[in-house]
Specification:
The protein is of the alpha+beta class. It contains 18 helices and 36 strands. It comes from Lactuca virosa.
């Protein structure tokens, strides 16, 4: 629990004199037009600096030269087939800027990011493709005419000069009014919403707020899949004259890059229900991808008039040029009403852009207020992967597969956004109003969720076809959980496992679900969900990284989390014997070994061609299988879903059995094999390692607990005994009196302090199981990490460096040992919070905010990378692992673990028979971890309860 207000020393991000004066806030404080007090903020005139990409040292280059040659050859080979390699460090497009903002849309139907200065960029409509450059024709603009006509203003609502708008004399974008200074305009981000406030720009007597709303609604599996966003403009006239205000949305028929020039694109005006009118932009994609239709619309009301221009171009030969369009708006403040009747435009020619415009005009009285709402949606009903398979996206379950679904989407967005905001505020307010939490944590917690939209997410509704793998028939069949009632109405719950039946009783309160289904979400089938490791590492659901990120899905969309675990559980029991060449050593092996957890679900043919990662043979990695077991147990315990547990338990047993081959000295503890055989895939490990060994100990305990709860007493007893032996070996080989050595080898970094050494303990605490080690050792490790990995880098304001020598120097044995990883730092902070070290935990995580998100940092907001070096060079922007900040929230305010863990730390039972019988449970009030009296019958061992 967070005790006291210990974070008062940090200056809030809300100094009024630097952002918005309070009078403006009060004027905008109706219809949610004023931004919240807790938000990430930037002035619109903030310089968007170029980010510094990482580089390897000469020593590292020598070590990696052979790998580099093989990787370069592989990248070229993939390109010859028209495909992009999942990891390609050789081809970079443009220079990344510190200019990102909250993305548009829900999850899994493609995304578009709107930068804090107002530009639309990062188009990810096609799977695995990210068009980072902004489409400069996509803009909001404003035209103001005061009564009497002596005051007029016209401006694009994006400040400064931008690349790609052409020369000031042409007929294109440069002819528009790019005259907003941004000095008095600010951006406020609290995902999934954002506010841009124009405090007297361009009209000194007009206050304008633009509120961006997307349907990211925890536990709402319908609306959260919708590809749409709403922009609500709040207008306040502080002048003495009436003002005619026209807001303009322009949009290019494009999916990013230069796709607007490919030709054959058609625009079509429409008048819809409830005053929702706009333009459909039908986009013909290349390379056999399915078409995409955009809808841009505004809502006509008694006070707001909507008009459209279905088509204009960016060059002199266009029927209507961008310059002519701008001139029409500057003169009249609207387009001709007859434009709604012109029908579809002729298909565009190659090389010509086909853009559309929607205008919403209103009069605002002196001291009056008005609201104008726009919406953008896109309909791409089928998603096609590079090797040919296509699937229907999740939202088609509700909107069908017609290209005109975009029209229905903007209608529903404009008529439902207030309900969405109510749901968002109900979800966020308990955290935002908790005065014990530091301000930076509140908005960073929500804003890191941007990745679940902008992380290349794909959410399909179509059932997956049969896999192309060879099934391993030696694996035991799954358990089946049966609920029957006898003639007296009493439940008799049983598990069927091969030829044996185990019966266990359970009380109703032990089976309370994590989040009871609402009427709107009564469907149990949530389809299949993918998200990328990162926009630079194009692999879906990379599992060693999902280990950190999955807390966000479990807390907010638990059904999606369970569906991902089911897919990996099925994969464990299958084998894919197709040959793959591994780039690190040049050797060949099979793509997917039975019993091994895959590294990822694939790239160009997900679910059917797993393990797109081919640098190392991940069937020899030591962390994937334990991470699978730990995630499965955590999810099983948190949701109370016994049918899920019964379904995946055979895969858990298979995954654990597979790992026994790596215990070479029969001490029940696995060893690493002298190469980077875990998530730190450039950091070599010898013998027993702190990271993988700790994960393995935790997996032994979790397997025993899960077996006990499913009634498999023999398996539970077996893994209990293995744990006791393995723990003794682990401590004997690695404990040095204050922390666990990096590994048991004799290399120069074997005694390094690894920030992530207690990853297994993190999961034990998060799952309601007993500690792996005594509290003295746990706190000693965490304090060492805090003092060295955190405190001795960047003044303690940069996060936790992965490796640190005991002499206080950063471990520079490889690029990963010298990096700060945002997701790992959040995980370490969560472990500290579980251990009662809240102040150290928040100070550790604050380094990620300071270095990554603050105005004094490196500029990584809404593109948090995998990691960075001490001098601020990033590696792999827009990365999955930083979602681990939700592991901190899980530690602070965990949802009750539904299933009973063993009544005491089952693994140390023989040594601690006199311990009090109790259960670690979750407290929904945010008061941390407390003891609860165990009510039900113990499932595993004879006891006296």
């Amino acid at each position: 629990m967070v005790s006291g207000n210990i974070f008062h020393f940090r200056k809030n991000s809300w100094p009024p004199e630097e952002y918005i004066n309070r009078t403006t806030l009060q004027l905008l404080d109706f219809d949610s037009g004023a931004p919240p007090e807790q938000a990430w903020r930037r002035k619109l005139n903030t310089h968007a600096s170029i980010l510094k990409e990482f580089s390897i040292t000469f020593k590292e280059a020598i070590k990696m030269i052979t790998l580099g040659i093989r990787l370069w050859s592989y990248v070229r080979e993939e390109a010859s087939h028209g495909r992009r390699a999942p990891i390609d460090p050789f081809n970079r497009e443009g220079k990344p800027l510190a200019s990102q903002g909250v993305p548009l849309g829900g999850m899994g139907s493609g995304s578009i990011t709107r930068g804090f200065r107002g530009e639309f960029r990062q188009f990810q409509i096609l799977p695995g493709t990210c068009e980072a450059s902004p489409v400069m024709a996509n803009q909001f603009s404003i035209f103001i005419s005061r009564e009497g006509g002596h005051k007029k203003y016209a401006s694009v609502l994006s400040p400064g000069q931008h690349e790609g708008i052409g020369k000031c004399t042409d007929q294109g974008l440069s002819s528009w009014g790019w005259n907003l200074s941004g000095q008095h305009s600010t951006y406020h981000a609290l995902f999934p919403r954002a506010w841009t406030v124009y405090d007297g720009e361009p009209d000194p007597e007009l206050k304008v707020s633009c509120r961006q709303i997307s349907p990211f609604l925890p536990h709402n599996y319908r609306d959260s899949s919708l590809p749409t966003s709403v922009f609500v403009y709040t207008l306040v006239n502080t002048g003495k004259e009436r003002a005619q205000v026209s807001l303009l949305l322009t949009w290019a028929n494009s999916i990013g890059g230069v796709s607007h020039l490919s030709g054959d694109h058609v625009n079509e005006p429409f008048i819809g229900k409830d005053g929702v009118s706009g333009v459909l932009l039908h986009h013909k994609t290349a390379k056999g991808n399915h078409p995409v239709t955009f809808a841009v619309a505004a809502c006509e009301t008694q006070n707001v008039n909507v008009t459209v221009l279905p088509s204009f171009g960016l060059s002199e030969g266009s029927n209507v040029t961008a310059k002519e369009m701008w001139g029409k708006m500057a003169q009249d403040g609207q387009f001709d009403q007859g434009n709604f009747n012109v029908g579809p435009t002729v298909p565009s020619s190659a090389g010509d852009a086909n853009c559309a415009a929607v205008s919403a005009s209103t009069w605002v009285e002196p001291n009056g207020k008005c609201t104008v709402a726009f919406a953008i949606s896109w309909s791409s009903p089928k998603v096609k992967f590079m090797k040919g398979k296509s699937y229907h996206r999740r939202y088609t379950r509700y909107y069908g597969t017609s290209e005109r679904a975009a029209e229905n989407l903007v209608h529903d967005a404009l008529t439902n956004y207030k309900r969405w905001e109510e749901e968002i505020e109900k979800w966020q307010n308990p955290i935002l109003k908790n005065d014990k939490l530091p301000e930076w944590y509140k908005f960073t917690l929500f804003n890191e969720l941007y990745f679940l939209v902008a992380g290349g997410t794909i959410w399909i509704d179509t059932p997956l076809p049969a896999a192309d793998f060879v099934h391993d028939n030696t694996i035991k069949p799954k358990l089946t959980y049966n609920t029957n009632s006898d003639q007296n109405g009493i439940n008799n719950n049983s598990f069927t496992y091969e030829d044996e039946n185990f019966t266990t009783s359970s009380e109703e309160d032990e089976l309370e679900p994590l989040n009871p289904d609402s009427e709107k979400d009564s469907e149990s089938d949530v389809g299949s969900f993918l998200y990328l490791e990162g926009v630079e590492y194009i692999m879906w659901c990379t599992y060693d990284v999902h280990f950190y990120a999955s807390f966000a899905l479990l807390a907010l969309f638990p059904k999606i989390e369970l569906s991902i675990q089911r897919e990996f559980a099925r994969a464990v029991l299958f084998e894919d014997q197709r040959k793959v060449k591994f780039l690190a050593d040049g050797k060949c092996g099979i793509r997917k070994v039975k019993g091994a957890v895959p590294h990822d679900l694939g790239t160009h043919d997900p679910w059917h061609e797993m393990n797109a990662y081919n640098i190392h043979d991940t069937s020899k990695w030591k962390d994937l299988n334990p991470k699978f077991v730990l995630q499965v147990y955590r999810d099983f315990a948190a949701t109370g879903d016994l049918s899920f547990g019964a379904e995946v338990f055979p895969a858990v047993c298979a995954a654990m059995a597979y790992m026994e081959q790596f215990d070479r000295d029969q001490d029940c503890l696995i060893e690493n094999d002298g190469f980077p055989d875990q998530t730190y895939d450039a950091w070599t490990v010898h013998g027993v390692s702190a990271y993988c060994g700790c994960l393995w100990l935790a997996a032994l305990q979790a397997t025993a607990a899960m077996a006990a709860q499913l009634g498999d007493v023999a398996t539970a007893e077996g893994y209990k005994g293995k744990f006791v032996k393995a723990k003794a070996a682990f401590e004997a080989k690695l404990w040095n009196g204050s922390y666990f050595n990096y590994d048991s080898g004799s290399s120069g970094n074997s005694k390094s302090i690894q920030a992530d050494q207690l990853a297994g303990q993190w999961y034990m605490a998060a799952s309601g199981l007993g500690n792996l080690f005594d509290e003295v050792k746990i706190r000693s490790c965490l304090q060492k990490i805090y003092d060295f990995n955190v405190g001795k880098v960047g003044g303690g304001r940069m996060g936790a460096v992965n490796g640190m020598h005991p002499n206080g120097k950063v471990d520079e044995s490889c690029m990963q040992s010298r990096e700060v990883w945002a997701g790992v730092t959040y995980g370490v902070a969560a472990t500290m919070i579980h251990a009662g070290m809240e102040e150290q935990g928040f100070a550790t995580a604050e380094g990620i905010f300071t270095a990554g998100w603050s105005e004094d940092g490196f500029g990584y907001a809404f593109q948090t990378p995998e990691g960075w070096t001490m001098d601020g060079h990033f590696r792999s922007l827009v990365y999955m692992r930083p979602l681990a900040i939700w592991g901190m929230q899980w530690a602070l305010n965990p949802i009750k673990v539904v299933l009973n863990a063993p009544s005491i730390n089952m693994m140390d039972r023989r040594l601690h028979e006199s311990k009090e019988d109790g259960q670690t449970s979750r407290n929904e009030t945010g008061e941390g971890v407390r003891k609860m009296v165990h009510k039900g019958k113990c499932l595993v061992f004879p006891c006296t309860c």
